[in-house]
Amino acid sequence: MSQEDFAKQTGLSVNTLRSVENQRLPLSENILRPIEARWLAMWDQRDKEWHFLQTKKLYSKELAAKVLPMRPQAEQTLIIEKLVERFRDILAAIEDNALPGQAMFLNRFLARHAKEFDLDVDLNPTEPFWFLRAHPTEPKMWLVAKYPERKRKIKRTQTVPKRGKASKTSARRASLNNATA
Q: Which of 22, 50, 53, 59 is deepest in the core (most CB within 10 A)?
């Protein structure tokens, strides 16, 4: 693979890769992270070798070709569930008064991550708008997160038969029933 292809797929610049190869730039976390995420290759600082993830196996294209194919759906689901569980554990450990600041930090971090790895994801529905609201009985303010309404993609498999002069409510109800069916 060319440096250009490797750089494009990893999200690093060709100049950065060349500087690392020529030892003008050290292998920092900012360089290692996208390589690990894209190629599942981890640099072992002690051995000065690339390993396949956290195993003792040396990284090679042949090994990667055998291991990287798509996982079974059940395993994919388990990985996602464990990541969500880990994320919930982290959030549960945050003190209430620090939660808004941590939420802002994590939202920015996740948006940067999605952009850095060129992930095709729309984060707008989960991006909060922050504002202050006066407390009703005390001279204090609440920091409140407001989330945009999520637009649901409805796959229409059935059409609603046209009836005479049906009310808007009954037509809406019929369309919702078809969408949830």
A: 59
Domain check: are 63 and 122 in the same one?
A: no
The whole domain housing 39 covers 3-67
Distance between CA atoms of residues 106 and 49, nearest Å: 32
- Full 3-state SS string of 137-149: CCCCEEEEEECCC
Tens digits of per-residue pLDDT, 41-79? 888 888 888 888 888 889 888 887 787 566 778 888 898
Residue 126 contacts residue 110 (beta carbons within 8 Å): no
Q: How far apart are CA 154 and CA 86, in angstroms?
A: 31
Q: pLDDT value at position 153? A: 58
Query: What pTM does this model have?
Result: 0.54
Question: For residue 134, which phi and psi values (nearest 5 degrees)?
Answer: -70, 140
Cβ pair 34, 10 in contact under 8 A: yes
pLDDT of residue 70: 65
Query: How many structural domains does the chain have?
Result: 2
Euclidean distance between CA atoms 70 and 174, whole angstroms: 40
